[in-house]
Amino acid sequence: MSVLEVDRLVKHFPIHGGLLQRRVGAVKAVDGVSFAIAKGETLGLVGESGCGKSTVGKTILKLIEPTSGRIVLGGEDITALKPGGMWPHRRRIQTIFQDPYSSMNPRLTSGTIVGEPLENFDIAHGKERDERVARLFARVGLRPDAMRKFAHEFSDGQRQRLGIAKALSVNPDVIVADEPVSALDVSVQAQVLNLLIDLQEELGLAYLFISHDLAVMRHISHRIAVMYLGRIVELATKRELFATPLHPYTEALLAAATAPDPRRAKRKRTIVQGDVPSPAKPPPGCHFHTRCPYAVADCKVTSPPLREVAPGHHVACHLR
After folding, report:
1. What mean pLDDT do residues 226-230 have?
2. Residue from 266, 236, 265 nearest 250 by CA
């Protein structure tokens, strides 16, 4: 059973203009995204900057409201819940930020920061809270005596471990990790990724892991969804995606990767031309057709659905 299901999720941001600031258009940040994540699974969401992947994460967390679609968490539809109704579900889905320091109160000690959710959700107070926090510190590789330190006294990698401890404190089912290692040195990245993998194996966590880095995705993901201009264009297991990419955009991403798969060395490199179109005025039909070297007439008119072309391998392309 899936712990998180997203069905045809849409998020459009209105554009206002003119003297009366009437609505004149919309930025189609997310345009019909669907996927599911099972317990103990990591789904990687990858794409260029501006493709809408972070907006997907924020919408799932209900930090911003969806325009349409459904978000089902643990079998319960949370799409239309207001902040008050969403509160009981906050324990079940947590987040790890790219910059954990921005989410931490500089006036509070790190122990208080990690312990706040325990009190907010009435899980533990006083001595019991402190004991739980100490165990969380040890679990993420921090010394329990560091609970008295402030966030600015930690390194970037240690602060990310603090963010992980805070997310773990309420025993969530799903964690949305938005570029959690992109600001870290490569050696520290590996440590944090391995920590997340160990925690997943130990606790059965489900991750939605958002990143633009294919090497990171290859390390941590079980399945990978490739986004382009608000839509998922390919969804497959990690092995299938790297060995047999089917969408031209996925081929181009892999060709541009800094550490390409050596098995792909003899294959023709897919090079795309031009810039990413504006999400305020996406092209008709397949959004990628303006840059695709294989585009045919139908690509300019009809939007290809995301369909399964091989077991577990979905692609949105007229040519597949």
Report:
1. 96
2. 236
**DSSP secondary-structure letter at 172?**
-
- Kindly state whether residues 91 and 167 are assigned to the same domain: yes
Q: For residue 2, list its beta bridge partners.
A: 38
Q: Is residue 67 part of a domain?
A: no
Residue 94's domain is classified under what CATH number? 3.40.50.300
Amino acid letter for position 40: G
Question: Confidence band (pLDDT; 50, 70, 90) for 243?
Answer: very high
Domain assignment present for residue 238? The answer is no
213 and 146 in a common domain: yes
* Domain span at 272: 247-320
Same domain flag for 189 and 92: yes
- Kindly state whether residues 299 and 170 are assigned to the same domain: no
pLDDT digits (tens, 9 = 90+) for 140-199: 999 999 999 999 999 999 999 999 999 999 999 999 999 999 888 888 999 999 999 999
How much is the pTM? 0.92
**Quick check: 217 and 224 in contact, CB under 8 A?**
yes
Structure token digits, residue 253:
């991403």
Contact 235, 225 (CB under 8 A): yes
Cβ-proximal residues to 78 (8 Å cutoff; 6+ apart), any chain: 62, 71, 72, 86, 89
Domain count along the chain:
2
Residues 6+ apart with CB under 8 A from 286: 292, 295, 299, 300, 302, 303, 304, 316, 317, 318
Taking a C-beta distance cutoff of 8 angstroms, is the pair 151, 159 a contact? yes
Residues 176, 265, single domain; the answer is no
User: Which residue's structure tokens are 């329990």?
Assistant: 144
